[in-house]
Amino acid sequence: MITITGLTKRFGPLHVLRGLDLEIGEGRVTAVVGPNGAGKTTLMKTILGLTRSDGGEILVDGERVGDDPRYRSNVGYMPQIARFPENLTAAELIAMVRDLRGDDAAVDDDLIERFKLVDHLRKPLRTLSGGTRQKVNAVLAFLFCPALLVLDEPTAGLDPVSSGILKDKIAEVRDSGRTVIVTSHVLSELDAFADDIAFLVDGRLRYAGSVHDLKLSTRQLSLERAIAHVMVEGAVA
Questions:
Q1: What sign does the dihedral 26-27-33-36 (CA atoms) show?
Q2: d(CA 80, CA 237)
Q3: Which residues lie across from 3 on neighbouring strands?
Q4: 3-state DSSP assignment of residue 36
Q5: What is the pTM assigned to this prediction?
Q6: What is the C-alpha separation between 33 and 186, in angstroms, rounded?
Q7: Which of 25-39, 58-72, 123-137 has the least mean pLDDT?
Q8: Cα–Cα nearest to 91, from 110, 112, 75
Q9: Residue-wise over 60-89: b if at least 16 C-beta within 10 A, else e?
Q10: Which is nearest to 32 in space by CA: 175, 157, 185, 193?
């Protein structure tokens, strides 16, 4: 699905990505994890074409990112902090996005029902709580049945019930053969649904592979302890 080769990115003197090589498999949930400043968000934005790399390349289904922006029509993005037009209602925002995509676009709006958002759709976005805005953010990401979903801290601000609904949705998307890239600081929740892990430290990959193999090689039962082992030992057996 995605092949990343020799990816580099600097912001002034700050070297954020340092020659990253990574394969992200189709029909799998890949979690991108690491300490603050590791390069996770920059990597996600580069995959999306929102940030231009300084070197290397990213191929999405064989198409080089940066050559043709049309590949993004099949990508759903849930940023950690969404910037919505505050004067619109949630319903108006969803309708506007649907109009931009056209009548032929497939629509998956079942998260509206699952999140019990119907009563909030007519309210101005500026009046919604942070958790409700995050639900709207999720609805927009999943709305057009994208083949690739890029989710940056998707459960941040959600209550436990809503967080569970979203994690169930991610699993369903994966089971349907679509691809998900997700970041989260809560490793225990990634343990429940992530297939693969890309662990970044200082813009470099410390580990890339399956969660199962990481636990096996570190002899740890949880993802959190396995990642801690890699941080301390610096290598995977």
A1: positive
A2: 34
A3: 23, 59
A4: coil
A5: 0.92
A6: 9
A7: 58-72
A8: 112
A9: beeeebeeeeebbeebbbbbbebebeeeeb
A10: 185
Question: What is the model's pLDDT at position 55?
Answer: 94
DSSP state of 139: H
Tokens of 178: 């679509």
Judge contact between 154 and 182, C-beta under 8 A: yes
The candidate with the shortest Cα–Cα distance to 49, out of 67, 22, 23, 25, is 67
What beta strand segments (E) does 153-237 contain?
179-183, 196-201, 204-210
Tokens 């009046």 belong to residue:
127
Q: What distance in Å separates the CA atoms of residue 229 and residue 113, rounded to the nearest whole number? A: 41
Two tokens at 128? Answer: 């919604």
Query: The dihedral of CA 75, 78, 82, 86: what is its sign?
Result: positive
